[in-house]
Amino acid sequence: MNRIARRTPSTVERLAGLRRRLAQTRPAETPASPQGGAAGAGATPVDAVLVTNGDNRRYLSGFTGSAGMLLIADGAARLLTDFRYVEQAAGQAPEYEVVKIEALPWPAVAAQAMELGIRRLGVEAEDLTLDGHGRLQEALQAAGAGVELVPLRGFVEHLRQCKDGSEVEVIRRAVEIADRAFESVAATLRPGVSEREVAWRLEVAMRQRGADELSFPIIVAAGSNGAMPHHRPSDRPINAGEPIVIDMGCRLDGYCSDMTRTITLGQPDGRFWEVYRTVLRAQQTCEDGLKAGLTGNAGDRLARDVIAEAGFKDNFGHGTGHGVGLAVHENPRLTFSPAGEGVLPVGAVVTVEPGIYLPGWGGVRIEDMVVVGESRCQVLTTAHKHPLVAAGG
To answer: Do 33 and 171 fall within a single domain?
Structure first.
């Protein structure tokens, strides 16, 4: 049963924000604007944008159905969907005129484009498939519509980076569910339990606390498996004293949480404490220094420099963090790659998750979610960071 959402001021504001962006965004983003920044002077605007990405569709309209597209121009906002979702769309997206698709979607888009007099139609280049692009072009040509398809990258995602108060509150609740689920399950673990069993207990605990679904498949990586950052849980039994990386999150009202803790069942070896304290210090340094106005590259360096100075430079190969919202991985990015060249805005929700991975031994990763502010960040994650779990019966 889908929840029917009334119109909120944020829906109106988001639609207005998209229209402002529509008037000024260049036809295709350039490498100088890796996260979809505003267009430069003299850019040729598109007449309308076709939104096909499900998260973007929900963000702009409130519509939670699994099929549909938004066609947005200065004077029109239309939601195209099929018979299954017409009533739902009307209830969830009152700012939009709902257009029922009778058969294939592309002829319906072509008909609407002709009716609105669209000449340059922006499409989501990172979502629309090559086949979909071809079928849309064929439908436009068959309808006699002289419409040029213009690829856009990061068009809606740029707006999604800054979370409003209602979004942060839902994310906070999703974080709370995962935090408490982790703590309740971790306290019960004993040597001999399998990675797969731990993952199942964590999923059950999150659902019992109100989660709609998982944000992503839970990672439980014990011993040497922890050297693989995205290890999938297996039937391998967990031994006493070895590091266990647990990466988990849930989805609530569309929004995701994402957290990682590393624990041991009983006393670990000496290497564990060296690695764990280094990762924890790197995370705390990043969280203490992270604020709006920094680039994602600079935010990444806050943690990376600590790990490098401790002698583990080559054992931390992924970015320090990423945005979280309707998608569990979205902009902005805290990374050493070009994806981190963008500036962190106020209101962005990102992870801070440094790690060290040692083949043959295992790994340590600690991850919080934070809200970026003007002068500092606010940590949302409250799950404890005490790695020792009593291994007794």
So the answer is: no
pLDDT confidence of residue 23: 81
Q: Is 98 helix (H, G, I), strand (E, B) or coil?
A: strand
> What is the model's pLDDT at position 34?
42
**Secondary structure class of 29 (helix, strand, coil):** coil
pLDDT of residue 392: 64
pLDDT at 8: 53
Asked if residue 349 is part of any domain, the answer here is: yes
Collapse the DSSP code of 128 into the 3-class scheme (helix H, G, I; strand E, B; otherwise coil) and give the result: coil
Tens-place pLDDT, residues 220-236? 999 999 999 999 999 99
Residue 174 shares a structural domain with residue 262:
yes
Instruction: Please tell me the predicted confidence (pLDDT) of residue 326.
Output: 98
Strand order across the 255-256 sheet:
213-214, 250-252, 255-256
Alpha carbons 328 and 208: distance in angstroms, whole number = 21
Please state the domain count of the chain.
Answer: 2
**Residue ranges of the chain with per-residue pLDDT less than 50:** 1-7, 26-43
Instruction: Provide the whole-model pTM.
Output: 0.91
pLDDT in tens, 253-288: 999 999 999 999 999 999 999 999 999 999 999 999
Q: What does the alpha-carbon distance between residue 241 and residue 256 come to, in Å, rounded to a whole number?
A: 31
- Outline where the chain has alpha helix (H): 9-24, 54-61, 86-92, 105-116, 130-142, 157-160, 165-186, 195-208, 270-289, 296-309
Beta bridge partners of 378: 371
Upstream peptide bond of 268 is cis (omega within 30 degrees of 0)? no
Q: What crossing angle do the helices spanning 270-289 and 296-309 adopt, rounded to 10°?
A: 150
Structure tokens at 76: 């029109």
- For the CA atoms of 262, 335, 228, 368, the dihedral, rounded to the nearest 10 degrees, stands at 20
What is the domain-level CATH number for residue 171? Answer: 3.90.230.10
Q: Which amino acid is at 200?
A: W
Q: Which of 195, 327, 315, 316 is nearest to 249 (CA)?
A: 327
Asked if 262 and 361 sit in the same domain, the reply is yes
pLDDT for 391: 72
Query: Are the C-beta atoms of residues 346 and 377 closer than 8 Å to each other?
Result: no
Q: Say how far apart CA 154 and CA 137 lie, in whole Å.
A: 22
**Pair 155, 173 in one domain:** no
**Is 181 found in the same domain as 122?**
no
Q: Both 196 and 333 in a single domain?
A: yes
Residue 41 half-sphere exposure toward CB, CA atoms < 13 A: 0
